[in-house]
Amino acid sequence: MTVVDWISAVLLISGALFCVVGAWGMLRLPDILSRLQAATKPQTLGLLLILAGTAVRLEPQYAVGLLVAAMFQVITTPVLSQLVGRATYRTGAVDRSTLVVDELSERLRAGRK
């Protein structure tokens, strides 16, 4: 095996492990906000590692498409996570007694959205 093969293998296996950890967190964590973290943080990093591991094996002109997919993932995941978290908070699905800091309730009381 060449050095490129080893780098690609390490990136692909690391990415797969991050995705598995994220899926395990979604199954095992107790509340919606914790599951939301498990669904976004390790899954995004796992996908980026898998895309990097794949890009190492491709020619540069083909790896650009993977770069675009990675950028799209990095841009959209935090926004969607924020929207889903806000929706669960507003519908009452979040146990507010478990929150350490609750800035959204202050904003909602002040009339700002």
Give structural notes:
The protein has 113 residues and is mostly helical. Helices cover 80% and strands 0% of the residues. It has one domain (3-109). It contains 4 helices and no strands. The protein has helices spanning 3-28, 32-57, 60-90, 103-109. The chain is elongated, with a radius of gyration of 18 Å. Helix 1 packs antiparallel against helix 2 (32-57) and helix 2 runs antiparallel to helix 3 (60-90).
List the topology elements:
Elements lengths: L2 H26 L3 H26 L2 H31 L12 H7 L4
Count up the domains.
1
Q: How many whole angstroms does the radius of gyration measure?
A: 18 Å
How would you spell out the order of helices and strands?
Answer: HHHH
**So what's the overall shape?**
elongated
Summed up, the helix count is 4
Distance from N terminus to C terminus (CA atoms, Å) equals: 55 Å
Task: Give the class from helix and strand content and strand pairing.
Answer: mainly alpha
How many strand elements?
0
- Classify the oligomer: single chain
> Largest sheet, if any?
none
Task: Give the low-pLDDT segments.
Answer: none
Strand portion, in percent?
under 5%
Q: Please state the average pLDDT score.
A: 90
Range of helix content? over 70%
Features:
113 residues, mainly alpha, 4 helices, 0% strand, elongated
